[in-house]
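tl;dr need the bound structure. longer version: we got a ligand (iron/sulfur cluster) that a collaborator sent over and nobodys looked at where it sits. i said id run it. heres the input, straight from their email, havent touched it
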Amino acid sequence: MRSDNCGNHPMFRPPGEAESLILRVVDGCPSNTCSFCGMYKGVPYREYSTDAIREEIREAAAEWPGARRVFLADGDAMKLSADLLRLILTELGQALPRLIRVSLYANGSSILAKTPRELQELRELKLHTLYMGLESGDPTILASMHKGEAVPDMVLACQRAQACGLRMSIMILLGLGGRDRSSEHATATAQALNAMQPRLLSALRVVPVEGTTLAADVQAGRFNLLSEYGTVRELRDIVAALELERTVFRANHTSNILPLEGRFPKDRERLVSELEEELAAGALDRQGPGPMPLWL
Ligand code: SF4
């Protein structure tokens, strides 16, 4: 369910928020520079006024008074000031008596802009899961993709948020280093994740979305997509190197070649075995990326 009295561009939310009431409190993404991302291309970043947000909450509560979960859209709603987030969470709590949790997209910089005390206050007001794209632990890859976030900052942000009681859901992008940096991508990404210890981890495969810089680079031969075999091997290398103490793992997005899920640490060896079996089966394309999803 979604409240959409503001903005008319497509709405995005994580798969895990399918049951949530989606409330748009900003338009677009404040960075909007990532070469692989087409979610908010052409959408100017705009924070809604307090009055507009209050009105949206009032209308949403009238339509879905029993909502228990809310997702605040669009990209990086954590960029809003702590004061405005406090106001939104307070008003949501008052308008939705059955509310349990509120979640949003975040970036390392927007989390670190809040003090630990502010993060704790937001948690007390039912802010629950922050979805953050690490994408890669390799600074060279992040720079080439114009991610605009530093790996150490994202690691620290994850640690700080979880120390304040928030749940971090981290996304990584398989194949983001292409053929040239697959090994570096796997090693550095596992290292960053081990330092982060996120409660949730999702591995998606990079897909060149039409209209993005990455798609143009693929078209022009400047970026060599990892083969289907290489992508599964990369995930095997990442999973084998993960030392996670309490993480729910999913690689079952439409972009994934082999749907996988499990819990760390208990399922790590099973996940590695399943990936090894897939590699050994001989069915994966070693030259090209294999079939790409028609939609994400
Ligand atoms: S990946 Fe995230 S931070 Fe990068 S442009 Fe897309 S929404 Fe913004």
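gonna send this back to them w/ a short note. DSSP finds ten helices and eleven strands in the chain.
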